[in-house]
Amino acid sequence: MSIPALRELRRIFPDAHIALHTRSWADGLFRDTSFIDELITFDSNRWKIRDIYNNSQFLKEDQFDLAVLFPNSFESAITTFITRIPRRIGYNKDVRGLLLTDPIAVPEWKNRKHEVYYYLSLVSEVEKRVLGRDTVSAALPNAALEISDERKQEARQFLDSSGADLSRPMIALGPGSTNSRAKRWPAERFSALAGRLVRELNADVIVMGSTAEADVTAAVTAGSAHRLIDLTGKTDIGEAAAILSVVDLMISNDMGLAHIA
Predict the structure, then answer these.
(1) What is the pTM of this model?
(2) Which of 46, 87, 97, 192 has its CA 20 to 30 A from that of 103?
């Protein structure tokens, strides 16, 4: 949901060195992207104070001129404050305005528009305040993720070694869901659908999800009369993104893989 805003940040600062400071699990999503120059990743631990101190000390080394805070967290604001980044722009939430040089009011429309516009609006404010112009507000969101040819080839090899026939249509199913079981289409419906896809389209059906969703993916594969390729818990997010870049179709509940697809 932040990708369109990151693309616009690159467009308005074409010659800047743009680093994305994010948790390490996101590395696989942004590894091949053209809109950032550097990935600075970290693993969160139980002691937030240690995270803040370690990140601030690490970020000081690069002497950044501007920090754009996409997260609404107090932690992100105090980290950039301690780092002494000269310009710190973010939404004024959770009493963190005092830590920002440019606290931005949360748009009154926030709950009525898609989340991509929330981040785009922040970059629009960056453009107004730093460059004195506004072109971002007219931008159409581009949420495309780039996956290198090398990673696509590795994904095809992984699918081949997992039993997929690369000459047939490849269709991914995502029977898990984000946060709530109530949001799931029933497993037996996915099983029935998988059967139709195999019979009518001669497709190889790939079931995907995290280890936390193993119960529902197991129910889908067990309920199918046809062989399904179950990759649940066998990929990290970067590998999953590469696989989704080479399949023909994904049918999914509300889950992270749906956004990536």
Answers:
(1) 0.86
(2) 46
Q: List phi, psi (to 5°) of 19.
A: -115, 135
Instruction: Return left, alpha or beta for 35; rule: phi > 0 is left, psi -120 to 50 is alpha, else beta.
Output: alpha
The Cα 144–Cα 69 span in angstroms is: 21
Measured torsion, CA atoms of residues 52, 55, 56, 57, in degrees rounded to the nearest 10: 120
Q: What percent of the chain has pLDDT over 90?
A: 81
The per-residue pLDDT for 127 is: 98
> What pLDDT score was predicted for residue 47?
63
C-alpha torsion sign, points 223, 238, 148, 22: positive
Question: Are the C-beta atoms of 40 and 58 separated by less than 8 Å?
Answer: yes
Helix (H, G, I), strand (E, B) or coil at 139: coil
Lowest mean pLDDT among 50-54, 123-127, 156-160, 202-206: 50-54
Going through 12-161 in order, the beta strands assigned E by DSSP cover 19-23, 38-42, 66-69, 87-91, 102-104
**Residue 199 φ/ψ, nearest 5 degrees:** -70, -45
- The Cα–Cα gap between 168 and 244 comes to 15
Please give the Cα distance from 42 to 76 (Å, whole number).
Answer: 13
